[in-house]
């Protein structure tokens, strides 16, 4: 989105200005879109008008639902008042609505009162709303009474709706100009946008983060166990962890805002790498579904022959959620798990050691009960986002090539379910996994308490904005906010992220509104059988590579799959092209030796001397040197190695 924090926006523009296309671009990433059509069908003989309507219908994705309000102008206010918080409404346009409003068939209609009702419905709408309207105030005054009535009514409607909306944008010749924004309404300082994507500017961003951002409530922990491998030698074209672009800054540090332009993976390298797999010298059909790993690594590394990830860092986010979200958890259990990981013990630390990955335990702000109050204050959200960004920056500067994101904390699953309900329209019971006690029993009572906490939180925030930062403040909490910052920072530095569990997927859902590019740098190894992970992965377009249904804790499940993913990358990089496609045949010794006319290089079977009588000074034949590892000879009558012929 182009403006931070809006819940309702009015898009104005002249005829053929591109206002409808721009409005549609604002809702492209929304999971649930309801298109509200206001224009009447018109005269059946008017083919030009029918063509215009058909063009509008053709642009709408099949996943959108459409609702007509042409029969009753007052119905538009009813639609807005009854909208659900998880919906995105696109009203196109108010010109058609005013036309119906002034139609004698709908009289007696008080257009002034109906416009006031519409403005009030916009102010109280629980959903996010984009309204489109023609801007006719710049044209000449119409010469007919009906024309003047239309322009007057539309002008009054535009003024009333603009006053009710959080943001207003005017589209001129396809170029949007923001007339009103949340930032300007609150008189907050606008960030200075830097456009030159230079390495020096990026270094200044990092330096400013380190020098100017105060984070007294959260201290960056040291990288703990398992020192990562040395940073790989820089090669031409290697863009791992490279600084990318200058980002907007203010006095307090980096500005993380909606609509950030972050880098995308290489769109050509991935398909080229997958196509290359079909040419390799493999005896079977290939890598199966794991060819997606090769395509992902190729796109994020910018080469058609990607290398296996050498330096890997695991970020374990530890932060508890209070209230009903944590029902069924043992007090202090998450702190014990975090301390265990810090000491290099437990499943996560041992798997990290096996993989040669570094492990960093990150303490995140504790979250308040979401059923009663916001999980975090707005300033805490800003700090947590920048903190997560800095963690990714630190990893990139240390030469880390892959981040593994995990979490341990009481109530994390319920918080992730609340985020999914707000962003994807999910029902809490459908995305909340069963609660398992320490004894391995199912605790249905605790599960119902969690469902009720999420339900109450959604009801409490039904009229709140659904912006990314608002969702983090109201529902997500500290761990989801820090995870979102990690995804954004890793995207900015071109570092791929291996997700594992509800917290990382919830962060992926939130990050779409801040930078839609972030999801393209994420890989999901296994869904673990968790319903929230399944739904979020489907919305984000992340297909799990495996179906192991592991439940070792967030982060640990991904580390189990990591050696397999590395092996696939190493194999795809090392195997030669099949000989039938022009590759060298490693089994043909002559392929590696030049042609020679020297008789001593002739075929030994044709030049071998007659050995019918043994020589008195030489043995019949020399025992060949072994060509590879094998068991030692244990008897004189043991047959020689395969491939050798006795004389």
Structural class: alpha/beta
Low-confidence stretches: 184-252, 595-647
Helical coverage, percent range: 25-40%
Q: How many helical stretches?
A: 22
- What is the mean predicted local confidence, pLDDT? 77
- The strands making up the biggest β-sheet line up spatially as 3-2-4-5-1-6-7
Shape: globular
Strand content: 5-15%
Sheet with most strands:
7 strands, mixed
Termini Cα gap: 82 Å
Overall radius of gyration = 32 Å
Q: What is the β-strand count?
A: 14
List keywords for this structure.
seven-stranded mixed β-sheet; 39% helix; disordered C terminus; alpha/beta; five-stranded parallel β-sheet; 647 residues
Provide an overview of this structure.
With 647 residues, this protein is of the alpha/beta class. Helices cover 39% and strands 11% of the residues. It is built from 22 helices and 14 strands. The strands form three sheets. The chain has a seven-stranded mixed sheet, sandwiched between helices. β6 (167-172) and β7 form a beta hairpin. α9 runs antiparallel to α10 (291-301), α11 (333-342) packs parallel to α12 and α17 (468-476) runs antiparallel to α19 (502-514).
